[in-house]
C-alpha cells in the first residue's frame, strides 16, 4: 500500500513531457485543434493533388477562347483567367509552390539559426559579441528591398534562387531567439556537470541544451513558416517572386490590381486571397496554442 502511494506521489511530482503539455493545450483549445487538422489536411491535399493529379505544362497553356470564363461554366469549377487558364489548377499549383518555398526557407533558416544561436549562447564572450554584431547588422537592413535587388540582379532566376535569397535573411530572428535561451541554459548546473565529466562541447550543445529549447523552437518555426509564406506571396504580388511561368498565390492575388478584374472578375483573385487568409488564421491559432504550451512547459520546468 505504501509503495503504491509512493509511486503515485512520484508520478504526480514528475513534470509532464513537452508533447503532453502541447497535447493538453490543444485539447483545451478546440479552435487550435481544428486549425491544426485543417492545415495538415490542406497541405497534404495540395501536395498530393499537385504532384499526382495536375499537369502544370498543360494547365499553363493559353486558351483565349475561354478568356474570363465564369465559375461552373465549360468545366471550370473556379473559372478562368485572362488567358483562359483554369483558376483551380493554378490555385493548386500556386499553393504547392508557395508552401514548398516556405517549408524550404524555414528548414534552411532553422538549421543556420539554431546552430549559430546555440554556439554563440554556449560559448559567449568574443564569439557571442562577434555573431551578435553580424545579427544586428542583418536586422537593421531593409530585408524586402535587398531581396528585390538580388532577384533583379539574376537574369534567369529559378525557384531555388528565390529560396536561397530569402534564406539569407530569414535565419536572423531564429538565431537571436535561440542565442538568448542558450545563454541562460549554458549557466545551469547540468551543463557545468557535463563539462566536469569531460563531455564534448558538441554533445552538450546539441544533446543537452537543444532538447530543452525544443518547445520555443517549435513555436518559432511555426510562426516563421507563416511569415515565409507571406514573404513569398508578397514578392510574387509585386512581381519579384517566382518566374512568370510558375504559378503562385501572390500572382493570382496580383490580378486584383486591375480595377475591372477587381470589380467584375472576382473569381480570378478571390480564391487565392481566401486560401492565404484561412491558412494564415489557422497557423496563427496553432502558433498561439504552441506558445501557451511552451510557456506552461517553462513554468513546470
Index terms:
single chain, 301 residues, mainly alpha, MetI-like fold, 15 helices, 0% strand, elongated
Total tally of structural domains: 1
Q: What do we call the CATH topology?
A: MetI-like fold
CATH architecture: Orthogonal Bundle
Largest sheet: none
CATH homologous superfamily designation: MetI-like
Q: What is the number of helices?
A: 15
- Estimated helix fraction: over 70%
Q: How does the overall form come out from the CA principal axes?
A: elongated
| Percent in strands | under 5%
**Which H/E pattern describes the elements?**
HHHHHHHHHHHHHHH
Average pLDDT over all residues: 85
Number of β-strand runs: 0
Rounded to an integer, what's the Rg over CA atoms? Answer: 24 Å
Structural class: mainly alpha
Query: Which regions contain 5 or more consecutive residues with pLDDT less than 50?
Result: 5-13
The end-to-end span amounts to 30 Å
